[in-house]
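Severity: low
Component: inverse-folding endpoint
Summary: output formatting inconsistent between runs
Steps to reproduce: submit the following structure tokens with default settings.
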């Protein structure tokens, strides 16, 4: 049995990750692959409980605690969902992974980035490919506004926060070119999907 591949989609609010994850998973399935689409925080029962606490809870966590809650959810998700699927030969398409902790908690909220990097190292598990969807702040804000959903704890943050998150993602992509591809996600759905499929074909 060949191990599946682990593809993550990253980016700020309104980058179109979820739409593109659905399109990517469908395209891989038409190639005859078994595909599992999942998300973070969440993707396993215990991790979904932590998602509720992190996104909707009223607690102002200390930076390290918030980082560790994301890594607790991630440990559960990896152990219960991602690893078993990969071992069964299934390709896993995941909406956010540890780069979101670096971008949101590290660059956005100012949590200790070396502490986050250490957690990433301890996890001992990395995506085969990370697609970092990048959109200008104004486009992202307009897409989020049009979605019209009640904002979660992170979406409620100010424009400065979201600009730092975007900058963080761009820096991560630049620092790890073997794993990451920065995708211009300002265009329409089909154009972005085509760019993603090119990256997947070239890298995997
Ligand atoms: P989303 O599913 O709509 O992308 O919402 C998840 C939110 O959680 C999003 O605002 C980003 C945030 N988040 C973090 O702050 N750190 C993390 O490690 C992850 C996975 C998500």
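Observed output (run 2 of 3):
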């Amino acid at each position: 049995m060949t191990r599946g591949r682990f593809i993550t989609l990253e980016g700020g609010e309104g980058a179109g990750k979820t739409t593109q994850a659905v399109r990517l998973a469908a395209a891989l399935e038409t190639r005859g692959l078994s595909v599992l689409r999942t998300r973070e925080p969440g993707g396993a029962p215990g991790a979904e409980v932590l998602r509720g606490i992190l996104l909707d809870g009223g607690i102002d966590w200390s930076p390290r605690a918030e980082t560790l809650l994301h890594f607790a959810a991630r440990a559960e998700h990896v152990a219960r969902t991602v690893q078993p699927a990969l071992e069964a030969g299934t390709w896993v398409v995941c909406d956010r992974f540890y780069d979101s902790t670096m971008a949101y908690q590290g660059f956005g909220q100012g949590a200790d980035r070396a502490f986050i990097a250490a957690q990433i190292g301890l996890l001992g598990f990395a995506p085969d490919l990370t697609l970092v969807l990048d959109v200008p702040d104004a486009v992202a804000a307009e897409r989020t506004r049009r979605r019209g959903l009640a904002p979660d704890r992170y979406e409620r943050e100010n424009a400065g926060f979201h600009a730092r998150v975007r900058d963080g993602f761009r820096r991560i992509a630049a620092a790890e070119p073997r794993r990451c591809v920065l995708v211009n996600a300002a265009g329409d759905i089909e154009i972005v999907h085509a760019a993603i499929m090119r990256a997947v074909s070239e890298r995997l």
